[in-house]
Design brief:
Length: 164
């Protein structure tokens, strides 16, 4: 049974020990609440590294993708999202766009992104893996913990004890 939590309750309990992301994301996946340790990708309009990461065992991790806020091309679509679900990822947060929105809604994966665009991205492999990325007044450090629900995203340097 998945652990139940609310980001508002986590903020109430832990205050300034948690970072709260100010970026206003839309929910796209079938899983509206998700959490796990962070892995990162920084890329711009090129999703080769995103695909590479999500095709590896996720073991409950959350991939945070800093696409620089670009809505010009999608960094994830339904095929990559289904691979992420099959490989055990808890969620994906994309500071950029997704596509195949109707299909993403059926995937049991937490998916947050800024918006959607049907245009696919480049696939050259340009980008950086496992380096801190920053947006929404939060630094997402690999191996820190991300908690996301309908209220937003909070980040903790260590795993939090959840109620229940």
């Amino acid at each position: 049974m998945p652990e139940v939590f609310a980001t508002a309750d986590l903020i109430d309990a832990h205050g300034d020990a948690l970072a709260s992301c100010e970026t206003q994301f839309r929910q796209y996946g079938a899983r509206s609440a998700f959490h796990g340790p962070i892995a990162t990708v920084k890329c711009h309009e090129d999703n080769a590294l995103v695909k590479e990461q999500l095709n590896q065992p996720g073991e409950g991790w959350v991939l945070v993708v800093d696409g620089g806020g670009s809505l010009r091309t999608a960094l994830m679509g339904d095929l990559i999202a289904k691979a992420a679900q099959e490989n055990g990822w808890a969620g994906v947060v994309i500071n950029g766009a997704v596509r195949d929105v109707a299909e993403l809604a059926k995937v049991d994966l937490g998916i947050k992104a800024l918006g959607s665009n049907p245009r696919k991205s480049a696939k050259t492999g340009a980008g950086v893996l496992d380096a801190p990325v920053a947006f929404g007044n939060v630094v997402f450090t690999p191996e820190a913990w991300l908690y996301s629900d309908d209220d937003g995203i909070v980040v903790s340097e260590e795993k939090l004890d959840l109620p229940g």
